[in-house]
Amino acid sequence: GTIGTADQDSTSGLVYQSPPGVVDQADQKLSGLENQRIVINEQSMRLTTSSLAKYERAEAYYRFPEGAKNFMQYKQLRLWARGRGNGWGQNGDLQFYVKIGNDDNNFYLYRTPVNAGQGQAAWLPQVTVDFAQLNALRLKIENAYLQNSKDTLSCTAADSALIARSLPPAGQVSRRYAACGNGYMVYTVNPGVSAPNLRAVQELAVGIVRVDSAALGATRIMPGDTLEVWVDDITLANGVNTPGYAGQIGVDLESDLGMIHANYSHRDPNFRQLGEAASNVADDDLELSTTLRLERFLSPRFGYALPVTVTHSTIVSTPQYLTNSDILANGIAGLRAPRSDATSVSLGVRRTVPLQEGWIAPIVNNLTVNTSFSTASSRDEYSTASHTMFTAGVGYAIGGGPRQRPMPDWWGRAFDGLPRWLATSEFAQAMKNAQLYADPASFRISSSYFKSDDERSSFSKPAASLTDTATLVSSLTNFWNNATALELRPFDALSARWEFSSLRDLRHYGDSTLAGATATRSEERRVGKECRSR
User: What is this structure's pTM?
Assistant: First the structure.
């Protein structure tokens, strides 16, 4: 229920006073033109129970109907709480607690003694939940889960008793993971699936727990006592306002020998635009590329261009927290932090000084050779991937030069003699203004070899663990591609092209499956070899 400034009963000792600094006026949106009275009645939530056995608790909870809430932009949760009647105080039988979590099986909890009495002083001190201590306990549970160690950490006395009374969900066989310290507790039945998360809070609860720790001088609970606590003004406080920084530096050098490009950028985990939330991930991006002209180191009579291009990129992400969680990443041993690397090397060979004599001149002058090798790897918390690729190719091209010349005079006169409706058409104008190619035919032939190897591994846990087995998937691609093309373009408005290409799969499928045996036998026949068995 609720209790407010309008609920005063001095005969029973029920006298309500608002917490310090809490205005006893209802929140209303007014235009300023109303002629009405404002009813003042500041209220608190009132939780009562008739009896509690040792380590039993009574609570009121609220589940956010609009969905999960993100508490990560704040460092604390604050609220006012005070008891009424016997059992309260610094050494009393009763304690107040607040829960933040998903449900009654996965939550963060903070319990503390609160005072009882008359006046505003009974509200003091304000209850403050420090999220940093919750993060530290959550990290302990995650490390215990990854290493398959014991599931209850640093929990003694009342904490252990409370955990023992919290039974697992009905019909579910599961371990209960818990970590405790300084009145704080993290409790979950499955750290890998349903653990509490300040980034996705679905439920908030407050309540009374009986710990029977009364010392000399404390007010003891008597039979028939009504146990009661008042709660008011639950707020998130101490917002995260750490400034973020980002920077970039780049260098470009060019000369006759080649060029060098280097660029480095950094963005820290707190960098964000106005109105945006911080990503909590630091990014470092390095890009390097260079092109070296090897022919510059040789004699000019060599006559070939030998450009070598090397590129490399590295992107390293350093998260403050595991993805979509509130678990501190720097406390997880062997964490697979997101990272990606890519490197490629390519070499091309072509003739720059044409040979003038000999039968080999038409072949060498129009021949190009190129090859490349690249490797890449990437990883995130739950997967890794690697890729290597090798390509080599030879190409020959002749004809099809860019030189053009005007069409003969009779060509234009032929179009002038056409009917006006036809001579002014777009097709006729294009044909009339066409340019004649001096070298109208071109012939190209190429042959290339391509091989790539991919491997992917997936994990169920974000760091190396004895209880986690990787699922490996690998694939090999091995192709030989040949292409021939003949193109005829007498003028720019007309062209004809004939092209033939073939792609051969050179992978070895083995004979462990029917499809693999069929593919292997087909490959053997294609290369001119056939095996027979009796």
Answer: 0.75
